[in-house]
Automatic annotation (TrEMBL):
GO molecular function: transcription coregulator activity
One GO cellular component, as annotated: mediator complex
Main location: nucleus
UniProtKB keywords: Activator, Nucleus, Transcription, Transcription regulation
One of the protein's GO biological processes: positive regulation of transcription initiation by RNA polymerase II
Protein's name in the database: Mediator of RNA polymerase II transcription subunit 24
Keyword Transmembrane recorded: no
The organism's taxonomic lineage, starting at the top: Eukaryota, Metazoa, Ecdysozoa, Arthropoda, Hexapoda
Pfam family, one: Med24_N
Native source species: Danaus plexippus plexippus
Tagged with keyword Transcription regulation: yes
């Protein structure tokens, strides 16, 4: 109650309130079993540690003594405080008293002592377990409090070096290749050779615990690649992974650190098997493991907590497009999703680029709220800018975000979000320069990005499924039929263009463009009327030509032929000969006819008297 005593003297807290808090604390404490420092030599309760202040003092005193005499009791104590909230309570008290760094430094010394003891010739397995549990507790503390808060900047212990070089943390990402640089190929070969044996035992390897922790990343890489190539079966994989965590749970943590770093950079199609390996480490302990391996339950509890936090910090869970993973949750924050997006967006604005942490959070928001919600709110944030440089930078960032699922985001923008700005009288007021041009630019960027994605996906798929060529042929034949049926209209021009370019717009982009051009026909100013919608349509066509180059005609192929003349009548000063010449395919009769029509109309509009 040292905090309340000064408040009572200042009359901020009344005596009755102080008595109430005292009684409440005594009631809580009476439910907990008291643990005195002398209990370090005996059993420690598995529920809570009461009177944590003297308990912490006793732990620090014991860890400050001769480890040769106290190692067994310290090992028992560390195993017993892992369960429940006992460890968290001790760490919380150490934080309040300013002794957390002292606690960590002494635990690191104990870990170094255990490492040396376990490296001795013919050292019993219990020495390895002491190193294991102390290593796991240190990992957990670093994850909860941060390496900067609890470790020395230039600490030379094995654990501190491993954290700096190999352990990914929230906001601190590691390169998987950089982690592998610490590995020794000869040690990896020996490690894999013994791990592949059914009766694997570290006593037969002459490898030290720190060698195993450093080189297990290279081992898990070879195991992963062998599994991907079909060189080992799933049963062999499970046996080797179980052997790793049974001998030392810290090996599973070290391997998972590399796997999380690898998942962070590898293509999304290749993350399934690395995540499956991590999930195997997280599988529930078997009855044999619990009964035949000393203190395996306690070490497994810490191991699973650490690995799960590694996953969530480095690669927050999200739902894959292929639905290959059945993850139980989408949201990775207690904040409302709009507040999450706002805070992430503010961070992106400050940095000026889309960083990987923001990408993971936005990906989770996309899977949680859907593309329409994400596109709507990102567009609102973009249109808040007033300066051209800020608007251009914002569009680039938004397009990068949309590439999380470019097809669905483009569809949401064209079918649901953009019509609100074109038809809603309130939102239509935002279609002023330069926001109108920026919105048109964003739409065009998304259309071409979705088109490129569709083309690249078709090329990739055609390598696996040769009959896709017949599907493309059917689509071309269908276009030919439509062209012949519409042979008396200039729209036939655009179908022949799409065919000649060898590019066919497929669903869902095709339907989205059809609906967009239908809206343009309704909104284009009639009789020379100029509206915000008219200006937007012109900006859209202009950006489509500028950004698309030769593919502009493919995108504009289903635009009704009367839209361009209508725009020329409304905005003659905005058009020029070069723009009109790039709207049509001049190699076709219809293209030359429409070009001549529009050029003549533009000349007449400029020659008319003011």
């Amino acid at each position: 109650m040292s905090l309340l005593d000064p408040l009572v003297k200042l009359n901020v807290v009344a005596e009755s309130q102080l008595a109430y808090f005292n009684q409440k604390r005594e009631t809580k404490d009476s439910m907990l079993q008291k643990l005195e420092p002398t209990g370090l030599q005996g059993s420690v309760p598995a529920y809570f540690i009461t009177r944590a202040e003297p308990t912490l003092a006793g732990i620090l005193k014991t860890m400050g003594g001769d480890f040769h005499k106290t190692q067994d009791s310290l090992h028992a104590m560390l195993c017993q405080i892992v369960g429940g909230t006992t460890l968290d309570t001790i760490l919380a008290v150490a934080t309040v008293e300013g002794k957390l760094k002292l606690f960590v430094s002494r635990l690191i010394k104990f870990n170094e002592f255990a490492l040396i003891s376990a490296s001795e010739k013919n050292a019993p397995q219990s020495k390895v377990y002491i190193f294991d549990i102390s290593f796991l507790i240190l990992c957990s503390i670093v994850q909860d409090y941060g390496a900067e808060a609890v470790l020395d900047e230039n600490g030379d212990s094995f654990f501190e070096q491993w954290v700096r070089e190999c352990m990914p943390q929230k906001g601190v990402h590691k390169s998987p290749e950089q982690i592998l640089q610490k590995c020794d190929s000869q040690v990896i070969d020996i490690f894999i050779h013994h791990l592949s044996a059914p009766d694997f035992d570290f006593k037969n390897t002459n490898l030290k615990p720190h060698d195993l922790c450093i080189n297990v990343c290279g081992v898990i890489k070879e195991i992963l690649f062998a599994w991907e190539q079909g060189s080992i079966s799933s049963a062999d994989l499970k046996r080797m992974l179980d052997s790793l965590r049974q001998k030392m749970a810290s090996l599973a943590v070290c391997a998972s650190s590399w796997l999380c770093a690898y998942v962070n950079v590898v293509h999304q199609d290749a993350i399934l098997k690395p995540i499956n390996i991590i999930q195997q480490f997280l599988s529930a302990p078997s009855e044999v493991e619990l009964t035949q391996i000393d203190n395996f339950k306690e070490r497994a509890i810490l191991m699973c907590q650490i690995i799960r936090k590694l996953q969530y910090d480095i690669h927050p869970p999200s739902v894959l497009k292929a639905k290959t993973l059945n993850l139980s949750h989408y949201i990775v924050s207690k904040q409302p999703i709009l507040e999450q997006l706002q805070s992430v967006w503010d961070d992106i604005k400050t940095r000026g680029y889309l960083h990987i942490d923001a990408t993971h959070i936005i990906d989770s928001l996309l899977n949680t709220a859907g593309p329409v919600w994400l596109v709507t709110n990102l567009l609102k944030q973009t249109l808040k800018f007033r300066y051209q440089d800020d608007l251009d930078r914002s569009v680039d960032i938004v397009v990068a975000i949309f590439h999380l699922d470019i097809e669905k985001c483009s569809q949401a923008l064209l079918l649901y979000v953009l019509p609100q700005y074109l038809y809603n009288a309130k939102l239509c007021n935002e279609l002023v320069e330069p926001q109108s041009a920026i919105l048109a630019k964003l739409c065009v960027y998304c259309i071409y990005a979705a088109l490129e994605h569709s083309i690249s996906r078709k090329v990739t798929t055609s390598r696996k499924r040769r009959h896709d060529d017949s599907e493309d042929l059917d689509a071309i034949c269908s276009s030919n039929k439509v062209r012949r049926l519409n042979d008396n209209t200039s729209d036939a021009l655009y179908y022949s263009q799409g065919q000649s370019m060898g590019i066919i717009i497929k669903e869902p982009l095709q339907s989205a463009l059809e609906m967009l051009f239908k809206s343009f026909s309704q909104l284009a100013g009639k009789n020379g009327d100029v509206t915000p919608q008219t200006q937007f349509i012109f900006e859209f066509i202009s950006y489509a030509v500028q950004c698309g180059q030769d593919r502009a005609q493919v995108v504009l192929q289903k635009m009704p032929s009367e839209i361009v003349p209508t725009l020329i009548k409304a905005l003659p000063d905005n058009f020029n000969t070069g723009l009109i010449l790039r709207l049509y395919d001049l190699s076709t009769p219809y293209g030359r006819k429409d070009t001549a029509r529009d050029l003549c109309l533009l000349r007449n509009m400029r020659l008319r008297p003011e």
